[in-house]
TrEMBL record:
Taxonomic classification: Bacteria, Bacillati, Actinomycetota, Actinomycetes, Kitasatosporales
Protein name: Acyl-CoA dehydrogenase family protein
Native species: Streptomyces ficellus
TM helices/strands, residue ranges: none
Domain Acyl-CoA dehydrogenase/oxidase N-terminal: 32-144
Region of interest (Disordered), ranges: 1-21
Family: Belongs to the acyl-CoA dehydrogenase family.
Source species, domain of life: Bacteria
Domain called Acyl-CoA dehydrogenase/oxidase C-terminal: residue spans: 251-397
Cofactor(s) required for function per UniProt: FAD
Entry keywords, A to Z: FAD, Flavoprotein, Oxidoreductase, Transit peptide
Keyword Amino-acid biosynthesis: no
Domain Acyl-CoA oxidase/dehydrogenase middle per the UniProt entry, residue ranges: 148-238
Amino acid sequence: MSASSKQPAHQPAKLPSFDPRDPLGVDDLLAPEDLAVRDTVRAWAADRVLPYIADWYEKGELPGIRELARELGSIGALGMSLEGYGCAGASAVQYGLACLELEAADSGIRSLVSVQGSLAMYAIRKYGSEEQKRHWLPSMASGETIGCFGLTEPDHGSDPAAMRTYAKKDGTDWVLSGRKMWITNGSVAGVAVVWARTDEGIRGFAVPTDSPGFSAPEIRHKWSLRASVTSELVMDDVRLPADAVLPGVTGLKGPLSCLSHARYGIVWGAMGAARSSFEAALEYAKTREQFGKPIGGFQLTQAKLADMALELHKGILLAHHLGRRMDAGTLRPEQVSFGKLNNVREAIDICRTARTILGANGISLEYPVMRHATNLESVLTYEGTVEMHQLVLGKALTGLDAFR
């Protein structure tokens, strides 16, 4: 029998068509329940955020945040990867897909969910007493109670070990004093998870925000994350009972583990902002005509679109890989730094390139591109700056600590 007449043992299935929105076929890696979570969050964002977000951003406000929080609770998006106490118990991949869809709408909406679930609720679930978990988590999962997370201070961002916020014992009570800065959800929160120095080391406290001496003035005049509530936390001799302290941890490993969980969500979320900007540029390139044809027909525009698609879908694959590792219990903090550093940096670049394709229209709020680009400038900084994640990876690669 000639070589040309040989037939393969199994005829290959017909190749699927090329999908510009999913060029690598990543959806094939997702289970039906994963797709259901993604589609639920995408539909909610399309209905409740996208029609209004440009106006919210322009006005620098997030009206109806309490109602939005309750709606997010009703679809299981708050603390969704946590188990029990009214939480959805979703997989890490499902949580990541939710973050991607939320940030495709706006980084401020994803930040609301991340701070609620991955910081405040995660801290209470992991380090709180059984009484604290029962008291706070069900109402936080439903969105009835909004939480915030107080770690960053006006003079201490990347170096939280130098924090000045202090809690001292007074009999069986604690007296908490200090300031925290750039706190998402702060002025609408019912509970603040605040980290403070004590004679025992750094401890976390679940602080009811109606406590005397506690205030949370909102921060204005932002050019990024404008559709988000950002506040300062001021604690002026806030007296707390003994059971306000989170008993499960002492030291920086407490807040840092929470940050690692939140950073994981950012790995996915940043790709949502990038996807939104890429899709806007792609559609624009197919309809905007110059020199007698759509600009998408010019080589330089196609080169930009190809490079954007490469980085976008490589980032989604990276996020998916990290999600599977988290679900398997094998995800290391250094790997989260890998994802956060790469995906946010590439997402900003995608947004900036998309803006060039849209030309002057790229700065208009009629399109999402500039809004995503300015939001990502904050995402690039919070939960660890570029430099801090570079040093985390540098230490992991060399075994040498360059932080100090």
